Each structure stands twice: as structure tokens, then as C-alpha cells.
Amino acid sequence: MTKAEILKSSHFPWLETEGTDTDVVLASRIRLARNLKDVPFPGRADFSQLAAVREQVEGVMPAIAQAMDQDFEGIQLEELSPLELSVLVDKRLISPALAKNPQHREAIISADTRAVLMVNEDDHLRIQCQAAGFELDKPMAAALRIDDIIESQLDIAFDETMGYLTALPTNLGTGLRAIVYLHLPGLVFTKNIQSIAGIAPQLGLAVRSLFSDGKEASGCLYEISNQLTLGFSEKEILDNLKNAVAEIVAHERKARKALALYMKDQLEDKVWRSYGALRYARLLNEKETLELLSWVRLGLDLRLLGEVDRDSFGDVLIASRTSCIQYLADSENLSKNETDRLRAEQVRNVLAAHSQQKG
Amino acid sequence: MTKAEILKSSHFPWLETEGTDTDVVLASRIRLARNLKDVPFPGRADFSQLAAVREQVEGVMPAIAQAMDQDFEGIQLEELSPLELSVLVDKRLISPALAKNPQHREAIISADTRAVLMVNEDDHLRIQCQAAGFELDKPMAAALRIDDIIESQLDIAFDETMGYLTALPTNLGTGLRAIVYLHLPGLVFTKNIQSIAGIAPQLGLAVRSLFSDGKEASGCLYEISNQLTLGFSEKEILDNLKNAVAEIVAHERKARKALALYMKDQLEDKVWRSYGALRYARLLNEKETLELLSWVRLGLDLRLLGEVDRDSFGDVLIASRTSCIQYLADSENLSKNETDRLRAEQVRNVLAAHSQQKG
After folding, report:
1. What residues of chain B lie within 8 A of the CB of A275, using their CB?
2. B303 and B165: one domain?
3. Does residue B78 sit in the same domain as residue B199?
């Protein structure tokens, strides 16, 4: 995708629904933190040093593009408006930290948007690779392939005892953060989500809500990631996360089965009404959209609802973000009412495009 | 319509939307109370007397059918099940009082269902004629035409001073009850309905909710009728009611205009969401159905919603009554959940049949 397409699109391959366990796992992501040797971390580097880092990373890109067999689009963040930066953050293509100080920062994004190199985030380089569904191995392999090329051409800060050196101690060692995005309506509805979030730290994992409204997770969307990067091999880190996610997936399915069995009519009603609201509402706020979307996705996954395809979920999820609505309207100064009106319109359009059978 | 069709149908000409002021007035009804001379009122008559009354009225029917240029279907109420009786009451074809003691009671219904002769209700005969919209003159003329034939062939209790004698003193004199059915969402929403209901008694009128849930009118549906039958001519009674209704219609339109002007987005949202809920819900109770239906009708009348035709309102209104759902399922012993499930299904079917453009 070109920069313009990336900013405009609401469809990303890593939110598609063909893949492993996509009834519960939306996507999986690997992120490797790397730094250049003998260059201050970005937080302490001056502009000329940041510019030099960017230049060095850009120099490696042709080799990476060839190895990954696709083009990469380098987006200079200082050229983006604050709204455009928000759009990239909301689309989860770049981190909030990268967008915070756009000067001499860059996001280098692969044509399929699965791979992103963030330059001068907390670390000089963050290699981010993602895939749809429960799939950590492929993005890990992709990230390591990119890392191999980086390390073959650039001098990366690595300590024999500590491992990869990083700006934050929480990334030290492997520099690996593996994240799995989960949709857990069953566990939320049966009130089991808290116990899972409670156990996670003991397993070296963190459970967070993907879109949080205070302490509640809007739309039953969560992310679970490894907390520890040091003292374990990359394989151990991934295996630990995989085991935990596999457990959560099993629990979630059990909870859904119980709901579908004991509250069949109420569940179908909720699912279809939610679809009806997304389909017909003229005002939708961000939080309600996520909640309605969650029920619709559950209905799609339980095959209670057949009017739209499952990929509509990811598309609505992205398209309904306030930043994307503002970007579409080319204005950051929309009133809340106007934003909600445009959001409802946009949601209807996206759903209509996904309708297999109308009416 | 035949008896079977009357019991099954949910479409009645007097709920159609072609007519005068049908944006506010659903239907108008005239009812004349008449009694045979020297026969005890039904509440005091024995079975042989009731049977004789029925026989006398039936004897006049050929002449009435000829004058009205349509067939009449005589339904002997003792042949109906309690559920079938409820269906006729809920369809507002017969009064609850007629259904209460079905023995020797009869409803003689014209083919277009606009005219109904109720035999042995509180009075020996109640002539009921109705029309769609704000139209009291035509049903009045029809009722008087029927009455003329009745009076030309039967000996009707009439006192030169008192007028027509009736079982209840509230019907004495003209025996005329004129009723107008109104949909008043604007006045309900702007909280002006109470003042109108408060003024009515001073005008000799009564305002009641059509479907009441405690003291609230479900679906913003009201009926307004004359309270006084004695001491005024039929024309005076009708003119008084007409003037009041014309005032209410004007107020209601003003309230709607204000809503459409000052709360445009919220109103559209409410209308479309209500349509979406009726269109997609899997469980609907009677009260919520009326409320959703009210918003949909308002949306149709304000031309905010174009997906269904306006006649869908009357059809859903009738089809969604619990008695009609039970009749359709051929069971009075449905659970609440099952009733609500079938109601939602029925509402979807009726709306789908009325959809001009699906989706």
C-alpha cells in the first residue's frame, strides 16, 4: 500500500478471519527492539544522530525488501499532520511513542502492512510483524529474517551476558514482545475474565484491554503479551504465551457454548439487535460501536448471523475509530454529534459492502 | 372476509394510511347503541330472550347487506374459543364486554370489516362503523343507514324526552359514541399530552390510552371520544369532537416539527434504530413492539424512513398482539419467551412483506 492507501484503508490482512483460531484470536504480533551500537538511545540522541540512524536503516531497506519479496513504504512522520499520526496509531501500524515526537521518526511499512519498521521509537529500531489469528511463528520468523539482514549490515548493540540492549530495561535481553489480540465476550459475559487477568502476572504475562474505557474493556477486546524479555529464550517466551492463549481460547469457547446453550434466544436477540443497530443507527459513538461489533462478531463466530462476512468486523473496527472518521471528513474539528453521525454513516457503508444477502 | 380470514388477517382497511390526516389520526369510529322495546337489557335477559334478540337482528341482515352492498359474516361467539374471542377483541372488531359472556352473543361483520353489529352486548345492538384517518362523517352515515333499516323493521326503545334508551345511562339519548384513534409521539415527547388529557373533560371528551401499561400509553397511542350522549344532537357531538381533534392534530404536528428541527439527528437515529430492532430482534414483548412501532411510524410520517410503506404500521400493530401470536401458534400455553420469540419472527415477516427496498 502507498502512504495514501494506508491512511485511507480500513482493511488490513492481519485482521482477516482466515487463520488459526480466529473465532477467538484476532491477530498475533511480534515486536523486536534493536539499537545501534555507540549511538545514544533516541530519547537522548540529538537530531543529527536521529537523522543518521534513520539514514542507516533506510540503507538496509533494499535488502530487506528483496528478502521479504515486497515493497516497503517509508513514511516520514514529520510530514504527517497530527490527525494522520493518530490514524496510523489507531490502525495499530505504529506505536503512540513513535507518533509522540515525529521529528526524524519514520515508519517503514511493507506493502501488505504485515511488517513495520519503526525508526527512532524508544529504541532505534522496532521490527513489528503481525499475522491474522493465533499465529506467532510466522511473524516471529519474518521479524528474525528482517533482523538478520539488519544485523548483517549494521552494528547492533548486543551484550554477551545481557543480550540486546534496549532503552527500557523491560525490553532487555531478547528485545521480544509477543502480543496476541483476543475477543473474549464469553469470558466477559460469564465474568471469568477477571480471574484470567489475575493469574497472568504469575505466568509472566500481561492482560490488557485493547480499547479501554476507564477500567472496562470496550467490545470485550484484550491483548495478552509477555512481560519478561530477559532470562528466557525467544522460544521459551513464545511457548509460554502460546500455552496461556491456548488455555484462554479453550475457556472462551466453553463459555460461549454455555451461553449458546442456556441463553440461546437472548443471545440471538442480542446479536441480531446489535447488527440492526450498526446497520441502521444514525449516531454511533466509539464505545457503543465496539460493543455492538463485539456481539456481531460473536454471532458470526457462532454462526447465528449470516448476513455479513466475518471480515466486516476488522473493517468496521478500524473504520469506526474517531481518527479515521475525522481523516475521512478531512477535519479534526468535528462536533461530537457530527463525528457520531459520520461514524454511523461509515459503519453502514462498510457493512453494506460486506453484506452477502441484503435485508 | 370469512370468519377464518377475520381471525387470521392482520390487515384491516380502517387502519390503512390513505385518508385524511393519517399522519396523526389512525382511524375514526362511530358506535350507536340501540335496544328492542319491551325486552330486558342483555344483562337482565334470560337465554331465550337473548336468543330471540339475536334472531330478530339476523332477520334484518339481508336488508342491511343489500343497503351496504356487501356481505356480512355472522360469528356466533359461543362457537369461539377464549383465544379466538381475545383475537377479535384485540383486533378491535368486538368489545371486551361482548366477549365476556359469549352465550347468545353475535358479531355480524361486514366483508370489509368496517361495519360490525354487536348483538347482546350491554345493549341489544351496537352498530359500529369505522374508517381510516380523521373521518367521522362516513362511518356516521353508514351507522345511520344501518340504523334506519333496523328501525324500519324492529321496534326500538325510544323515548320522546330521553331519546334512545340504553342499558347504561352514559349512552342514553343519542346512543352515540364517536371515537378517534390518535398517534401522538410529538405531544408525548414534548410532554404536552398531559395538559391535553386534562382539558378534555371540560370539553365533554375523554382521552384514554389505546394500549395502556399501568398509566402510561404504550406506543403513544390514544383514543379520544365524546363523554356526553344526552342533551346534544349527533351533529353537535361530532362537531365538538372534530374541533378538539383538529386542535390536537395541529399541536401534534407543531411538536413534530420542533423535534425534527431541533433534534434532527437524535430523532433520525431513534427512528432508524427502532426500525432496525423491529427488523432484526429475536425477542420482542408487546410493549416494546408498540414503542418501536411508534418511532417507525413517526419516521414514516416525517419521511425520514423510506424502507417500508406506511401500512406496515397497522399490520404490525395487529399482528404483534399476544392473542394473535398465540392464535397463529395455535396455543394459549406458550411461555413468555416463546411468545416473544414468535412475535419477533412475525414482526420480521410482516415488515419484510412491506419492504420496498431491502437492506
Report:
1. 280
2. no
3. yes
Structure letter (DSSP) for residue A22: T
Same domain, B267 and B254: no
What percentage of chain A carries pLDDT values higher than 90?
A: 88
Task: Choose among B130, B128, B90, B109: nearest CA to B4.
Answer: B109
What are the chain A neighbours of B272 within 8 Å (beta carbons)? 280-282
Beta bridge partners of A249: none
Look up residue A14 and give its DSSP letter.
G
Q: Same structural domain for residues A199 and A160?
A: yes
Res B13 pLDDT > 50? yes
Option in A266, A269, A283 nearest B265 (CB): A283
Range of the domain at A344: 263-358
Which chain A residue has the Cα nearest residue B282?
A: A269
Same domain, A151 and A283: no
Cα nearest neighbour of A285 on chain B: B269
Picking from B272, B283, B355, the nearest residue to A280 by CB comes out as B272
Residue from the list A272, A281, A340 with its beta carbon closest to the beta carbon of B273: A281
Q: Are B212 and B296 members of one domain?
A: no
Can you tell me the distance from the alpha carbon of A170 to that of A326, in angstroms, rounded to the nearest whole number? 35
Q: Are strands B25-34 and B176-183 parallel, antiparallel or unpaired?
A: antiparallel
Report CA torsion sign: B133, B135, B141, B143.
positive
Do residue B250 and residue B280 come from a single domain?
no
Average pLDDT of A95-114? 96
Q: Write out chain A residues lying below 8 Å of B277, CB-based.
A: 273, 276-277
Q: Are B43 and B104 in contact, with CB atoms under 8 Å apart?
A: no
Say how many domains are in chain A.
2
**Predicted ipTM?**
0.90
Q: How confident is the model at residue B357 (pLDDT cuts 50, 70, 90)?
A: very low
Last residue of a domain, one of B234, B258, B282: B258
Identify whether residues B29 and B102 lie together within a single domain: yes
